[in-house]
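Protocol check, entry for the methods section draft. Step 1: assemble the input record (protein sequence plus ligand SMILES). Step 2: submit for complex structure prediction. Step 3: store the C-alpha coordinates unaltered in the notebook. Ligand used here: NAP. Step 1 record:
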Amino acid sequence: MKYLEGIDTAKPISRIGLGTWQFGSREWGYGEDYRTGVADQLVARAAELGITLFDTAEAYAFGESERILGRALDRCGMKEQAFLATKLFPLLPVAPIVEQRGRASAQRLGVASIDLYQVHQPNPVVRDGFTMPGMRRLVEDGTVVEVGVSNYSLGRWQDAERALGRRVLSNQVQFALTHAKPLDTLVPWAAEQGRIVIAWSPLAQGMLTGRYDAAHPPTGAVRAMNPLFLEENLRRATGLLDALRDVAASHDATPAQVALAWLIHHPSVVVIPGASSVAQVESNAAAADLDLTDDEVAELTAQARAFRPMPKLETVTTMVRQRLPF
Ligand SMILES: NC(=O)c1ccc[n+]([C@@H]2O[C@H](COP(=O)([O-])OP(=O)(O)OC[C@H]3O[C@@H](n4cnc5c(N)ncnc54)[C@H](OP(=O)(O)O)[C@@H]3O)[C@@H](O)[C@H]2O)c1
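Step 3, stored output:
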Protein backbone atom coordinates (compact mmCIF):
# COMPACT_ATOMS: atom_id res chain seq x y z
CA MET A 1 0.00 0.00 0.00
CA LYS A 2 1.11 3.59 -0.54
CA TYR A 3 0.32 6.49 1.78
CA LEU A 4 -0.04 10.23 1.24
CA GLU A 5 3.27 12.00 1.57
CA GLY A 6 4.09 15.60 2.39
CA ILE A 7 0.85 16.28 4.30
CA ASP A 8 1.06 16.25 8.06
CA THR A 9 -1.78 14.17 9.52
CA ALA A 10 -2.14 12.34 12.84
CA LYS A 11 -2.46 8.96 11.09
CA PRO A 12 -1.17 7.76 7.68
CA ILE A 13 -3.78 8.02 4.92
CA SER A 14 -3.71 5.21 2.36
CA ARG A 15 -3.85 6.31 -1.30
CA ILE A 16 -6.47 3.62 -1.87
CA GLY A 17 -9.32 3.67 0.64
CA LEU A 18 -12.64 1.89 0.99
CA GLY A 19 -16.00 3.57 0.33
CA THR A 20 -18.89 2.19 2.36
CA TRP A 21 -22.05 3.73 0.87
CA GLN A 22 -22.93 0.13 -0.04
CA PHE A 23 -22.97 -0.95 3.65
CA GLY A 24 -26.57 -1.44 4.72
CA SER A 25 -27.91 0.47 1.70
CA ARG A 26 -30.73 -1.33 -0.11
CA GLU A 27 -30.27 0.82 -3.21
CA TRP A 28 -27.12 -1.08 -4.27
CA GLY A 29 -29.07 -4.36 -4.41
CA TYR A 30 -26.39 -6.41 -2.59
CA GLY A 31 -28.79 -8.15 -0.20
CA GLU A 32 -28.77 -9.30 3.39
CA ASP A 33 -25.59 -11.43 3.26
CA TYR A 34 -23.62 -8.39 2.22
CA ARG A 35 -25.01 -6.29 5.08
CA THR A 36 -24.51 -8.93 7.76
CA GLY A 37 -21.35 -10.69 6.63
CA VAL A 38 -19.53 -9.56 3.49
CA ALA A 39 -19.17 -5.94 4.69
CA ASP A 40 -17.24 -7.18 7.74
CA GLN A 41 -14.94 -9.28 5.57
CA LEU A 42 -14.26 -6.32 3.24
CA VAL A 43 -13.21 -4.11 6.14
CA ALA A 44 -11.02 -6.78 7.73
CA ARG A 45 -9.25 -7.59 4.45
CA ALA A 46 -8.84 -3.92 3.57
CA ALA A 47 -7.24 -3.19 6.94
CA GLU A 48 -5.01 -6.26 6.57
CA LEU A 49 -3.81 -4.95 3.19
CA GLY A 50 -2.81 -1.63 4.74
CA ILE A 51 -5.88 0.41 3.80
CA THR A 52 -6.39 3.04 6.49
CA LEU A 53 -8.87 5.39 4.79
CA PHE A 54 -12.49 4.34 5.30
CA ASP A 55 -15.25 6.66 4.09
CA THR A 56 -18.84 6.66 5.32
CA ALA A 57 -21.64 9.18 6.00
CA GLU A 58 -24.58 9.62 8.32
CA ALA A 59 -26.75 9.61 5.17
CA TYR A 60 -25.70 6.09 4.11
CA ALA A 61 -28.53 3.76 5.14
CA PHE A 62 -29.56 6.34 7.78
CA GLY A 63 -26.46 5.78 9.91
CA GLU A 64 -26.31 2.01 9.40
CA SER A 65 -23.12 2.24 7.28
CA GLU A 66 -21.36 4.04 10.15
CA ARG A 67 -22.50 1.35 12.62
CA ILE A 68 -21.44 -1.55 10.35
CA LEU A 69 -18.03 0.04 9.70
CA GLY A 70 -17.39 0.82 13.38
CA ARG A 71 -18.32 -2.71 14.46
CA ALA A 72 -16.27 -4.32 11.66
CA LEU A 73 -13.16 -2.37 12.70
CA ASP A 74 -13.69 -3.40 16.32
CA ARG A 75 -13.99 -7.06 15.31
CA CYS A 76 -10.76 -7.06 13.33
CA GLY A 77 -8.97 -4.95 15.95
CA MET A 78 -7.91 -2.26 13.46
CA LYS A 79 -9.85 0.78 14.70
CA GLU A 80 -6.79 2.57 16.09
CA GLN A 81 -4.98 2.44 12.73
CA ALA A 82 -8.04 3.44 10.68
CA PHE A 83 -8.41 6.99 9.37
CA LEU A 84 -12.18 7.26 9.69
CA ALA A 85 -13.94 9.77 7.46
CA THR A 86 -17.64 10.46 7.80
CA LYS A 87 -20.00 13.20 6.65
CA LEU A 88 -22.61 15.56 7.96
CA PHE A 89 -25.81 15.67 5.88
CA PRO A 90 -26.22 19.44 5.68
CA LEU A 91 -30.01 19.79 6.00
CA LEU A 92 -29.77 22.74 8.39
CA PRO A 93 -26.03 22.98 9.03
CA VAL A 94 -25.97 25.66 11.71
CA ALA A 95 -23.43 25.35 14.53
CA PRO A 96 -25.51 23.63 17.28
CA ILE A 97 -26.88 21.07 14.80
CA VAL A 98 -23.41 20.41 13.37
CA GLU A 99 -22.12 19.72 16.87
CA GLN A 100 -25.00 17.41 17.71
CA ARG A 101 -24.67 15.50 14.39
CA GLY A 102 -20.90 15.12 14.81
CA ARG A 103 -21.28 13.59 18.26
CA ALA A 104 -24.00 11.24 16.96
CA SER A 105 -21.71 10.04 14.14
CA ALA A 106 -18.84 9.45 16.59
CA GLN A 107 -21.18 7.40 18.75
CA ARG A 108 -22.41 5.27 15.82
CA LEU A 109 -18.81 4.67 14.72
CA GLY A 110 -17.86 3.87 18.32
CA VAL A 111 -14.96 6.32 18.46
CA ALA A 112 -14.00 9.19 20.75
CA SER A 113 -12.84 11.23 17.77
CA ILE A 114 -13.59 11.24 14.04
CA ASP A 115 -10.41 11.56 11.96
CA LEU A 116 -12.11 13.53 9.18
CA TYR A 117 -15.57 15.12 9.44
CA GLN A 118 -16.84 16.34 6.07
CA VAL A 119 -19.78 18.52 5.02
CA HIS A 120 -21.47 16.19 2.49
CA GLN A 121 -22.56 18.96 0.11
CA PRO A 122 -22.57 22.73 0.04
CA ASN A 123 -25.87 24.00 1.40
CA PRO A 124 -27.19 26.51 -1.18
CA VAL A 125 -28.75 28.76 1.49
CA VAL A 126 -26.77 28.28 4.71
CA ARG A 127 -23.25 29.62 4.18
CA ASP A 128 -20.17 28.08 5.76
CA GLY A 129 -19.96 31.04 8.14
CA PHE A 130 -22.85 29.38 10.03
CA THR A 131 -21.57 25.79 9.68
CA MET A 132 -17.88 26.07 10.45
CA PRO A 133 -18.20 27.46 14.02
CA GLY A 134 -19.86 24.12 14.87
CA MET A 135 -17.00 22.24 13.22
CA ARG A 136 -14.48 24.40 15.10
CA ARG A 137 -16.07 23.53 18.46
CA LEU A 138 -15.96 19.81 17.55
CA VAL A 139 -12.24 20.16 16.79
CA GLU A 140 -11.63 22.10 19.99
CA ASP A 141 -13.29 19.50 22.20
CA GLY A 142 -11.55 16.60 20.40
CA THR A 143 -14.64 15.04 18.74
CA VAL A 144 -13.13 15.79 15.32
CA VAL A 145 -9.48 15.81 14.27
CA GLU A 146 -9.70 17.25 10.73
CA VAL A 147 -12.49 19.03 8.85
CA GLY A 148 -13.30 18.31 5.21
CA VAL A 149 -15.90 19.27 2.63
CA SER A 150 -17.47 17.43 -0.27
CA ASN A 151 -18.76 18.51 -3.66
CA TYR A 152 -17.40 22.04 -3.07
CA SER A 153 -16.10 24.37 -5.77
CA LEU A 154 -12.58 25.73 -5.21
CA GLY A 155 -13.96 29.14 -4.20
CA ARG A 156 -16.31 27.66 -1.64
CA TRP A 157 -13.56 25.38 -0.28
CA GLN A 158 -11.42 28.48 0.29
CA ASP A 159 -14.38 30.30 1.90
CA ALA A 160 -14.87 27.32 4.21
CA GLU A 161 -11.22 27.56 5.31
CA ARG A 162 -11.63 31.25 6.10
CA ALA A 163 -14.82 30.51 8.06
CA LEU A 164 -13.13 27.67 10.00
CA GLY A 165 -9.93 29.62 10.67
CA ARG A 166 -7.73 26.60 9.90
CA ARG A 167 -7.20 24.14 7.07
CA VAL A 168 -10.12 22.26 5.56
CA LEU A 169 -8.02 19.22 4.81
CA SER A 170 -9.96 17.68 1.93
CA ASN A 171 -12.66 18.06 -0.68
CA GLN A 172 -14.40 14.83 -1.71
CA VAL A 173 -15.65 15.14 -5.28
CA GLN A 174 -16.77 13.05 -8.23
CA PHE A 175 -13.49 12.31 -9.95
CA ALA A 176 -12.78 9.49 -12.38
CA LEU A 177 -11.78 9.02 -16.01
CA THR A 178 -15.43 9.78 -16.83
CA HIS A 179 -15.37 12.98 -14.71
CA ALA A 180 -12.03 14.71 -15.19
CA LYS A 181 -13.09 18.25 -14.23
CA PRO A 182 -11.29 18.28 -10.83
CA LEU A 183 -8.04 18.26 -12.83
CA ASP A 184 -8.70 21.88 -13.83
CA THR A 185 -8.56 23.68 -10.47
CA LEU A 186 -9.12 21.46 -7.41
CA VAL A 187 -6.24 19.04 -7.97
CA PRO A 188 -3.57 21.69 -8.73
CA TRP A 189 -4.68 23.84 -5.77
CA ALA A 190 -4.67 20.88 -3.41
CA ALA A 191 -1.16 19.89 -4.55
CA GLU A 192 0.10 23.44 -4.07
CA GLN A 193 -1.48 23.94 -0.63
CA GLY A 194 -0.99 20.50 0.93
CA ARG A 195 -4.69 19.63 0.76
CA ILE A 196 -6.34 16.42 -0.43
CA VAL A 197 -8.83 15.64 -3.18
CA ILE A 198 -10.79 12.48 -2.32
CA ALA A 199 -12.17 10.91 -5.50
CA TRP A 200 -15.66 9.46 -5.09
CA SER A 201 -17.05 6.91 -7.55
CA PRO A 202 -13.48 6.47 -8.88
CA LEU A 203 -14.64 3.48 -10.96
CA ALA A 204 -17.74 5.37 -12.19
CA GLN A 205 -19.76 2.86 -10.14
CA GLY A 206 -18.27 -0.03 -12.10
CA MET A 207 -18.65 1.44 -15.58
CA LEU A 208 -14.84 1.78 -15.90
CA THR A 209 -14.34 -1.91 -15.21
CA GLY A 210 -15.67 -2.61 -18.70
CA ARG A 211 -17.94 -5.34 -17.27
CA TYR A 212 -21.25 -3.80 -18.17
CA ASP A 213 -23.18 -3.24 -21.39
CA ALA A 214 -26.83 -2.80 -22.36
CA ALA A 215 -27.40 -6.57 -22.26
CA HIS A 216 -25.64 -6.92 -18.88
CA PRO A 217 -26.66 -3.99 -16.68
CA PRO A 218 -25.39 -3.66 -13.08
CA THR A 219 -27.52 -4.40 -9.98
CA GLY A 220 -29.54 -1.97 -7.91
CA ALA A 221 -31.44 1.31 -8.06
CA VAL A 222 -28.36 3.55 -7.72
CA ARG A 223 -26.93 2.38 -11.00
CA ALA A 224 -30.32 2.15 -12.72
CA MET A 225 -30.36 5.93 -12.23
CA ASN A 226 -26.76 6.45 -13.38
CA PRO A 227 -26.85 7.72 -16.98
CA LEU A 228 -23.33 6.42 -17.65
CA PHE A 229 -24.83 2.93 -18.05
CA LEU A 230 -27.15 4.04 -20.88
CA GLU A 231 -26.34 2.28 -24.13
CA GLU A 232 -25.48 5.55 -25.88
CA ASN A 233 -23.06 6.63 -23.15
CA LEU A 234 -21.37 3.22 -23.12
CA ARG A 235 -20.98 3.63 -26.89
CA ARG A 236 -19.50 7.10 -26.42
CA ALA A 237 -17.05 5.65 -23.88
CA THR A 238 -15.65 3.09 -26.33
CA GLY A 239 -12.40 5.04 -26.92
CA LEU A 240 -11.85 5.52 -23.21
CA LEU A 241 -12.59 1.88 -22.34
CA ASP A 242 -10.36 0.64 -25.18
CA ALA A 243 -7.49 2.83 -23.94
CA LEU A 244 -8.02 1.48 -20.41
CA ARG A 245 -7.96 -2.10 -21.68
CA ASP A 246 -4.77 -1.45 -23.70
CA VAL A 247 -2.90 0.03 -20.74
CA ALA A 248 -4.23 -2.72 -18.48
CA ALA A 249 -3.01 -5.44 -20.86
CA SER A 250 0.50 -3.98 -20.98
CA HIS A 251 0.73 -4.10 -17.14
CA ASP A 252 -1.04 -7.43 -16.68
CA ALA A 253 -3.59 -5.46 -14.70
CA THR A 254 -7.35 -4.87 -14.94
CA PRO A 255 -9.09 -1.76 -16.34
CA ALA A 256 -10.35 -1.01 -12.79
CA GLN A 257 -6.79 -1.01 -11.45
CA VAL A 258 -5.64 1.31 -14.24
CA ALA A 259 -8.58 3.67 -13.56
CA LEU A 260 -7.50 3.91 -9.90
CA ALA A 261 -3.79 4.18 -10.73
CA TRP A 262 -4.52 7.10 -13.09
CA LEU A 263 -6.23 8.97 -10.24
CA ILE A 264 -3.52 8.42 -7.63
CA HIS A 265 -0.82 9.29 -10.14
CA HIS A 266 -1.79 12.83 -9.00
CA PRO A 267 0.05 13.27 -5.67
CA SER A 268 -2.75 15.08 -3.79
CA VAL A 269 -5.44 12.53 -4.74
CA VAL A 270 -6.75 9.53 -2.82
CA VAL A 271 -9.56 7.21 -3.94
CA ILE A 272 -12.34 5.45 -2.03
CA PRO A 273 -13.75 2.71 -4.29
CA GLY A 274 -16.71 0.76 -2.97
CA ALA A 275 -16.60 -3.03 -3.35
CA SER A 276 -19.00 -5.94 -3.60
CA SER A 277 -16.45 -8.68 -2.79
CA VAL A 278 -13.19 -9.35 -0.99
CA ALA A 279 -11.54 -10.06 -4.36
CA GLN A 280 -12.40 -6.52 -5.47
CA VAL A 281 -10.87 -5.02 -2.30
CA GLU A 282 -7.70 -7.02 -2.96
CA SER A 283 -7.56 -5.96 -6.59
CA ASN A 284 -8.20 -2.29 -5.72
CA ALA A 285 -5.55 -2.29 -2.99
CA ALA A 286 -3.02 -3.74 -5.47
CA ALA A 287 -3.62 -0.76 -7.78
CA ALA A 288 -1.54 1.33 -5.35
CA ASP A 289 1.54 -0.47 -6.68
CA LEU A 290 0.72 0.03 -10.34
CA ASP A 291 2.96 2.75 -11.77
CA LEU A 292 1.77 4.17 -15.08
CA THR A 293 4.19 5.84 -17.46
CA ASP A 294 3.80 9.56 -18.25
CA ASP A 295 2.71 8.63 -21.79
CA GLU A 296 0.02 6.30 -20.47
CA VAL A 297 -1.25 8.97 -18.09
CA ALA A 298 -1.28 11.53 -20.91
CA GLU A 299 -3.22 9.19 -23.23
CA LEU A 300 -5.78 8.36 -20.52
CA THR A 301 -6.16 12.03 -19.62
CA ALA A 302 -6.76 12.90 -23.28
CA GLN A 303 -9.40 10.14 -23.51
CA ALA A 304 -11.01 11.34 -20.27
CA ARG A 305 -11.20 14.90 -21.52
CA ALA A 306 -12.58 13.76 -24.87
CA PHE A 307 -15.38 11.70 -23.28
CA ARG A 308 -18.67 13.52 -23.73
CA PRO A 309 -21.69 11.76 -22.23
CA MET A 310 -25.13 12.71 -23.56
CA PRO A 311 -26.28 16.21 -22.60
CA LYS A 312 -28.63 16.44 -19.58
CA LEU A 313 -31.93 16.95 -21.45
CA GLU A 314 -31.27 14.06 -23.84
CA THR A 315 -30.30 11.89 -20.85
CA VAL A 316 -33.54 12.64 -19.01
CA THR A 317 -35.75 11.96 -22.04
CA THR A 318 -33.88 8.71 -22.80
CA MET A 319 -34.24 7.50 -19.21
CA VAL A 320 -37.95 8.39 -19.09
CA ARG A 321 -38.56 6.67 -22.45
CA GLN A 322 -36.80 3.50 -21.23
CA ARG A 323 -39.09 3.31 -18.21
CA LEU A 324 -42.36 3.78 -20.10
CA PRO A 325 -44.28 0.51 -20.41
CA PHE A 326 -44.93 1.03 -24.18
N1 LIG B 1 -19.39 12.61 -1.34
C1 LIG B 1 -20.32 12.18 -2.16
O1 LIG B 1 -21.21 12.93 -2.57
C2 LIG B 1 -20.27 10.75 -2.62
C3 LIG B 1 -21.08 10.32 -3.68
C4 LIG B 1 -20.97 8.98 -4.08
C5 LIG B 1 -20.06 8.12 -3.44
N2 LIG B 1 -19.31 8.58 -2.40
C6 LIG B 1 -18.33 7.70 -1.71
O2 LIG B 1 -17.48 7.13 -2.68
C7 LIG B 1 -17.47 5.71 -2.55
C8 LIG B 1 -17.22 5.06 -3.88
O3 LIG B 1 -18.18 5.46 -4.84
P1 LIG B 1 -19.24 4.42 -5.45
O4 LIG B 1 -19.34 3.28 -4.54
O5 LIG B 1 -20.43 5.22 -5.81
O6 LIG B 1 -18.58 4.00 -6.85
P2 LIG B 1 -17.25 3.22 -7.29
O7 LIG B 1 -16.33 3.11 -6.16
O8 LIG B 1 -16.80 3.88 -8.53
O9 LIG B 1 -17.83 1.79 -7.70
C9 LIG B 1 -18.06 0.81 -6.73
C10 LIG B 1 -18.57 -0.44 -7.43
O10 LIG B 1 -17.70 -0.84 -8.50
C11 LIG B 1 -17.59 -2.26 -8.53
N3 LIG B 1 -16.17 -2.59 -8.29
C12 LIG B 1 -15.38 -2.16 -7.25
N4 LIG B 1 -14.14 -2.67 -7.37
C13 LIG B 1 -14.12 -3.41 -8.47
C14 LIG B 1 -13.12 -4.19 -9.11
N5 LIG B 1 -11.88 -4.25 -8.63
N6 LIG B 1 -13.46 -4.85 -10.26
C15 LIG B 1 -14.71 -4.80 -10.77
N7 LIG B 1 -15.70 -4.06 -10.20
C16 LIG B 1 -15.41 -3.38 -9.08
C17 LIG B 1 -18.51 -2.80 -7.43
O11 LIG B 1 -19.82 -3.03 -7.98
P3 LIG B 1 -20.28 -4.43 -8.75
O12 LIG B 1 -19.34 -5.50 -8.34
O13 LIG B 1 -21.67 -4.62 -8.27
O14 LIG B 1 -20.21 -4.06 -10.21
C18 LIG B 1 -18.60 -1.62 -6.47
O15 LIG B 1 -19.74 -1.60 -5.67
C19 LIG B 1 -18.83 5.38 -1.91
O16 LIG B 1 -18.85 4.11 -1.31
C20 LIG B 1 -18.93 6.53 -0.93
O17 LIG B 1 -18.17 6.26 0.23
C21 LIG B 1 -19.38 9.88 -2.00
